[in-house]
Amino acid sequence: MARSQFTLAALVVSAVPDFDPARVTPVATGIDADFESALVTDHTGRAVIVRLPTSRATEQSLTHELRALEILTAGVRSRLGFELPTVCGRAPVGNTFGLVFDLLPGDVIHLDDIMAGTVVPAAIGRAIASIHELPANLVSDAGLSYVSATASQQRARDVVERAAATTMLPDALETRWSRAVVNTKIWQFDPTVIHGSLGVGNFLFGEDSVSAVQGWGALHVGDPALDLMWLTNTDESAEGEAFHSYQQVRLSSADPNIRRRAVLYSELEIAKWLLHGVRERNTEIVEDANQMMESLVATIGEEPVNTVGVGTEPIMTVNDVEQMLDVTPPASQ
User: Fold this and answer.
1) Which region holds residue 314: left if phi is over 0, alpha if psi is between -120 and 50, else beta?
2) Which one of 39, 72, 302, 322 has the largest count of C-beta atoms within 10 Å of its C-beta?
3) What is the pTM of this model?
4) Domain with CATH 3.30.200.20 in the chain
């Protein structure tokens, strides 16, 4: 049962010393949509966000984020060009717990705000690159997941094989994806620190730069293309600007095949959506996935099946992506 905004305000009072709530506003958009969340302001004007898990998966995500933010110390944060969440309180609630975060600066953006010729694409590219430039041992030595290039390739292959086993995968996509996941050339990369669940909702923007990045519950070492795949559904020119600024920051660490893997991962999200629908026996989701696959087949047209990520237009429309994000359960590592 959903808790009232007053219950969430009471949680803040118990978690944060000397906090006297004056206003409570439920929040159900962006990353907060996965939790019972509220914006709580006290009489001095201090504002915090309280998040309470709604499932075992979101509880694990919140636990993981707490650990990740402990690893991302002040010294580490100083290497990034934006702010990260700060936990200012924790309180038990029944068999689970809630976390209270200081409100981060900046405004929420949407996919259609990422337009070529503006500061947004380049700023996003630089922000993602700065995450990937962090030392990998910072995360792996702390016991968080390390996913090798070989394991990343195998995970992608597993998705394709399971989707093919449904017999609903169009021949063109089965061929295209099957060839991509066995093409060793595009899977030659060095795992980096990655956010792990990046999307447009994780970014907050200031006047001309990324002011904060939120939602660190999937931090681990893995394929940097995972943090970039969502950009393949933006305007093609804006996507190009974002990738260009990303590569400029990474320089010697630049990966010539990262954009191809990003596109492949984005396409495989449709396969995962299909598998989710099959698993849940939800005919509406299955039909939605089938329509997306038909649209992708039409988009790639005569493109050679071994050139995933080369000249491919956005896989889904802005509305397609945002609707999927509203109802798709958090991805597992």
Assistant:
1) beta
2) 72
3) 0.89
4) 5-104
